[in-house]
């Protein structure tokens, strides 16, 4: 593609020497598991996000599973979550033996609709898993009120939103517990898999630390069935190089989003909505198309990258067929799956490439009403 959806090599190239030096230092140390870089990265991210505790784990999916297990959520329990999200959200709920209960989303922001969440609460509900989708904060004020009203745990799936904030509070510091992913394409992405769990509860943090290490504090005494889910020392070293750059990268993403507006992209697609008080970081730039196939055809002809997230929402996936959700049961979720399209978005996205995208649509499409 002449205009790629993302460009990781271009983003990381200026840091090549620093990253190589950090990796070389780890290799020379001979310490590869839970070494000084993991400890330092945990302290640095806790301070950056504004929480008391951050625990490095193997990946974002494990982070969700560990968060659920830390609160003993399992068989017989229900967890409310969106169906318009990456699969690891409901997958983690099923992995601990609990049942995902899918709630519909807001048409403008694609985040959980608080009214739909309230309606989904039952006596079996233990938690709400709010996803900060595409780099935009979920409506945490309303979800916090629902959680408090029903004595529920509020979990943040912040895999796509490191650096986003709501009313001045960072995603990852709002709920009872939060999880992050450092998959390479994330805003803060490593050179492989990695994850993080954040909380202000020392007992929960200590339990996460035990669970990630086979249910043990000291490698000798095992108090519970745990997991092997530790953040690698090599990944932590790399992420420590990248973390100080993240605020600048997120600013560049926000500037790119503003340029799409200035270039008139909204004449041809519906631009992403931003909730009051939200400061998004545009992990993905997802627009709504009245005729997605025509938009994709125009972009393909101009060699402009694009991709659909997520074309089959999870309440209609075969794995959850036994839950009994019918087509039409989550109308806004299903409409988003039909109409939404991710467009190029990355920190170093050239303005000329954005103009190419808008020009490609302008050449063949009639402006929307």
List the helices and strands and how they pair.
Layout: H1 8-12, H2 16-29, H3 36-49, E1 53-57, H4 60-70, E2 78-82, H5 88-95, E3 99-103, H6 114-120, E4 125-131, H7 140-150, E5 153-157, E6 165-166, E7 169-170, E8 177-181, E9 195-199, H8 202-211, H9 233-262, E10 278-279, E11 285-288, H10 292-301, H11 331-339, E12 340-343, H12 351-364
Parallel strand pairs: 2-3, 2-4, 4-5, 5-8
Antiparallel strand pairs: 1-9, 6-7, 6-10, 8-9, 11-12
Helix pairs in contact: 2-9, 3-9, 4-5, 4-8, 10-12
Report on this model:
There is one protein chain. Helix 3 (36-49) packs parallel to helix 9, helix 4 packs across helix 8 (202-211) and helix 10 (292-301) crosses helix 12 (351-364). Strands 1-9-8-5-4-2-3 form a 7-stranded mixed sheet, sandwiched between helices. The chain has a 3-stranded antiparallel sheet with strand order 7-6-10, with no helix packed on it. A two-stranded antiparallel ribbon has the order 11-12. With 369 residues, it is an alpha/beta fold. The chain has helices at 8-12, 16-29, 36-49, 60-70, 88-95, 114-120, 140-150, 202-211, 233-262, 292-301, 331-339, 351-364, and strands at 53-57, 78-82, 99-103, 125-131, 153-157, 165-166, 169-170, 177-181, 195-199, 278-279, 285-288, 340-343. The protein folds into 2 domains: 8-240, Aspartate Aminotransferase, domain 2 (3-Layer(aba) Sandwich), CATH 3.40.640.10; 246-364, Aspartate Aminotransferase, domain 1. It has 12 helices and 12 strands. 39% of the residues lie in helices and 14% in strands. The two termini are 30 Å apart.
């Amino acid at each position: 593609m002449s205009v790629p959806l993302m460009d990781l090599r271009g983003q990381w190239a200026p840091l090549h020497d620093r990253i190589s030096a950090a990796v070389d230092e780890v290799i020379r140390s001979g310490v590869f598991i839970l070494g000084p870089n993991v400890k330092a990265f945990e302290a640095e991210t806790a301070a950056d996000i504004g929480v008391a505790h951050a625990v490095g784990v193997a990946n974002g999916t494990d982070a969700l599973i560990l968060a659920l297990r830390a609160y003993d959520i399992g068989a017989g329990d229900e967890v409310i979550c969106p169906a318009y999200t990456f699969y690891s959200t409901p997958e983690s709920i099923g992995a601990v033996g609990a049942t995902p209960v899918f709630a519909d989303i807001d048409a403008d922001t694609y985040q959980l609709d608080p009214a739909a969440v309230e309606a989904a609460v039952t006596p079996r509900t233990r938690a709400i898993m709010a996803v900060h989708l595409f780099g935009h904060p979920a409506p945490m004020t309303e979800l916090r009120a629902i959680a408090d009203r029903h004595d529920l745990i509020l979990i943040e799936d912040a895999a796509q939103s490191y650096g986003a904030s709501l009313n001045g509070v960072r995603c990852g510091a709002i709920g009872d517990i939060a999880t992050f992913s450092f998959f390479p394409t994330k805003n803060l992405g490593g050179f492989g898999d990695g994850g993080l769990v954040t909380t202000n509860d020392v007992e929960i943090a200590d339990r996460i630390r035990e669970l990630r290490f086979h249910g043990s504090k000291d490698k000798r005494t095992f108090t519970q069935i745990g997991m092997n889910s530790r953040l690698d020392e090599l990944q932590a070293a790399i992420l420590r190089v990248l973390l100080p750059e993240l605020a600048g990268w997120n600013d560049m993403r926000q500037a790119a989003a503003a340029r799409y507006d200035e270039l008139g992209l909204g004449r041809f697609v519906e631009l992403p909505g931003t909730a009051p008080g939200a400061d998004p970081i545009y992990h993905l730039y997802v627009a709504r198309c009245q005729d997605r196939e025509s938009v994709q055809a125009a972009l393909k002809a101009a060699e402009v990258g694009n991709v659909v997230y997520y074309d089959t929402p999870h309440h209609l996936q075969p794995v959850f067929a036994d839950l009994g959700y019918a087509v039409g049961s989550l109308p806004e979720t299903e409409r988003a799956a039909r109409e939404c399209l991710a467009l190029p978005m990355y920190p170093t996205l050239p303005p000329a490439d954005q103009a190419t995208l808008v020009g490609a649509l302008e050449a063949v499409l009639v402006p929307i009403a």
